[in-house]
Amino acid sequence: MGPETEEMQGRELKDENQEMTGASMLIQALARENVDVIFGYPGGANLTTYDEIYRTGMHHVLARHEQGAVHAAEGYARVSGNPGVCVVTSGPGATNVVTGIADAMIDSLPLVVITGQVATNAIGTDAFQEADVIGVTMPITKHNFQAREVEDLPRMIKEAFHIASTGRPGPVLIDLPKDIAAASGFFNYNQPVELPGYQPTVIPNKLQIKKLADAVSEADRPVVLTGAGVLHAHGSDELYDYITKQQLPVASTLLGLGAFPGTHELSLGMVGMHGTYTANMALHESDLLISIGARFDDRVTGALKHFAPNAKVAHIDIDPAEIGKNIETQIPVVGDAKEALRMLNEYNGTPGEFSEWKQQLQAWQEEYPLWYHEEKDFLKPQHLMEMIYEETKGEAVVTTDVGQHQMWAAQYYKFDRPDCWVTSGGLGTMGFGFPAAIGAQFAAPDRQVVAVLGDAGFQMTAQEMSILQELNLPVKIILVNNASLGMVRQWQELFYEQRYSNSVFPIQPDFVKMAEAYNIKGWKIENPGDMQEVLREALAHSGPVLMDCRVEKEENVYPMIAPGKGHHEMEGIKP
Amino acid sequence: MKRTIIATVNNNSGVMNRITGLFARRQFNIESITVGMTENPEISRMTFVVNVDNERGLDQVIKQLNKQVDVLKVRDITDDSIIARELALIKVVAAPQHRGEISALAEPFRATVVDVGRESITLQVTGDQQKVEALIDLLKPYGIKELARTGITAFKRGAVKSDFETPKHSILN
Ligand SMILES: Cc1ncc(C[n+]2csc(CCOP(=O)(O)OP(=O)(O)O)c2C)c(N)n1
Ligand SMILES: [Mg+2]
């Protein structure tokens, strides 16, 4: 059973221009923004808000740690496309969501975070549970506000939703002092948003589009790099039309997986540190690189001095500051990815001729596919990912934590849909994957949500199993258990002469018992032969489940670009 | 290279914090920042003198400033015809027998003596950076006890349009 939807109907919309408290304004505003669930945790500074939640029946999910709440809001935002809303108290409540805010900032996820604050007359006095949350979150929010007058609150909330969800999405925080939540004023939500300093460019310049289209006609070895920007813009259909019409090869960033179908013949797979040989070589050898909604993160580019040495670079991005930030760009296109692709599709240029290039790419794909050694006695994590892909028919929402299992999921789950993939890319936040799956399940109550987690990362936010228990939320937890901080262990093996400092667990909890403590059905899978059957049974189970999958402990993620190396210097490209 | 950038910003609490935080975080090299009210009390005006390595660095400074919701407009005015002024207070060691000499030095700079002590005098000078620096250099041999400079504030010369009407650095299109 998915989350209850009827409950939310209990919200009553009050008339405009009524006098009400700040807390009431908040809930009324959230209802007008069509917020159907909020994730949070109460405390002294936001009791008035919680009282309003109680009285209105606003759908609220109680996390067991604020970090769980904010990552759930992120997962919700990523899958629904709407801002995730998170409500926490002042001081420790607020500082506990800092990691999630930073994560949402760097991965461009829309969030509206409401933090309680001490009363206005106590601000600056080091009052009980006071923290300078505006100061702390200034560099990790798209924007933040502190409400100083109750009458400002509706405008602020409206602006917060507008800023979070338009342009390049991101987290916006509203710091709500206790006395402002309790004070009363007139509620008017029908004001237009007026932000002269915030005017994102949505429609690209026609001339730049023409330049890009002409560059494609003239190119011999073009490649498209798609990022999460395409997903945020809901531009997958336009991308599909563009790619198939122009017959362009496509590589994807980690976060962009699914924007273009991973099983399509024009898909080269993921680029970057653990990307495919072909995707990385395609960038390296290309003479035209078209980046759409990707920001040339260092895990994508490898060493900048070796990056795409022969390519003319075209970069479509809604955030002008990303263009030219890391990579010199010859054809800048500022605008929404969907709009840009729509314009490109309308433009009738001369089709390019890339048959030789595509032969080369195909030769690489055949020569250097992803590989691993199959073994009878150990479950190979890569094989586990293949099984998950098969058993979910490629249709599940897959969330991951951070580490080796994340890379294997990215490599082996062939994302064909734009709404299947939730992972922490830019910040690489351990503890993200499990609560994000909870949020994803709320955004997609009828879909299979699979949380692929490391044994270490899961322990960072495992307390959220309470939510699964309480709501019988059917999230499927798959622990890729290598009894280690696998990715750290891999680096220590490769770059620190196998000095495994604090990366191998001498003992582990009994994860199945842990699950059972929360009334979650658990399996331990030690024999690789049992995996498929358990997976099938567990996925078919109507409630939440946990599978503790014991995988080969020493397995490494390959291929790999070592730090400081370029795309053409990948290691582990063959068995 | 040294560039002069002006910005109008919402006169909200914390705006200065946002901007200086941004500069520190992005490792932008700032020589001076001045800020003050404009003809509109809700809007402040900032003047930055920044040191950047190249055009791309400059481009980033401007774009990152533009990204701030509270920043309304940004413009690099270095290559425009501008009026740029700063004020400096210079306390110089001055035995009574040197005072006449120092005053004579100050005169062509239209610097004025604003305070006199037993062993020092304080001069106030306004002008562009070169002028201020030239005077400081001339006074160094006497011994400078204290120096306070405001940093540059600037705007464009008597054009009809405001400084921001024809932005040189639009957002690329
Ligand atoms: C909060 C946080 N702390 C530390 C790290 C550094 N780190 C990256 S991967 C990793 C190991 C993760 O281990 P596990 O969750 O078991 O996943 P595995 O790599 O074994 O698949 C660590 C410690 C991180 N990414 N996030
Ligand atoms: Mg592990």
Automatic annotation (TrEMBL), chain A:
Annotated Thiamine pyrophosphate enzyme TPP-binding domain residues: 401-549
GO molecular function, one term: magnesium ion binding
Domain Thiamine pyrophosphate enzyme N-terminal TPP-binding per the UniProt entry, residue ranges: 20-133
Segments crossing the lipid bilayer: none
Keywords per UniProt: Amino-acid biosynthesis, Branched-chain amino acid biosynthesis, FAD, Flavoprotein, Magnesium, Metal-binding, Thiamine pyrophosphate, Transferase
GO CC terms: acetolactate synthase complex
UniProt domain Thiamine pyrophosphate enzyme central: residue ranges: 209-344
InterPro entries referenced in this protein's UniProt entry, alphabetically: Acetolactate_synth_lsu (IPR012846), AHAS_TPP (IPR039368), DHS-like_NAD/FAD-binding_dom (IPR029035), THDP-binding (IPR029061), Thiamin_PyroP_enz_cen_dom (IPR012000), Thiamin_PyroP_enz_TPP-bd_dom (IPR012001), TPP-bd_CS (IPR000399), TPP_enz (IPR045229)
Cofactor comment: Binds 1 thiamine pyrophosphate per subunit.
PROSITE patterns: TPP_ENZYMES
Catalysis performed (reactions): 2 pyruvate + H(+) = (2S)-2-acetolactate + CO2
One GO BP: L-valine biosynthetic process
EC number in record: 2.2.1.6
Cofactor entry: thiamine diphosphate; Mg(2+)
Similarity comment: Belongs to the TPP enzyme family.
Name of the protein this chain belongs to: Acetolactate synthase
Species the sequence originates in: Salibacterium qingdaonense
UniProtKB/TrEMBL annotation, chain B:
PANTHER family in the cross-refs: ACETOLACTATE SYNTHASE SMALL SUBUNIT, ACETOLACTATE SYNTHASE SMALL SUBUNIT 1, CHLOROPLASTIC
One annotated GO molecular function: acetolactate synthase activity
Keyword DNA damage: no
Catalytic activity as recorded in UniProt: 2 pyruvate + H(+) = (2S)-2-acetolactate + CO2
Protein name, per record: Acetolactate synthase small subunit
Family: Belongs to the acetolactate synthase small subunit family.
Top EC class, one word: transferase
Subunit and partners: Dimer of large and small chains.
UniProt xrefs under NCBIfam families: acolac_sm (TIGR00119), PRK11895.1 (NF008864)
Organism the protein comes from: Salibacterium qingdaonense
Residue span, ACT domain: 4-79
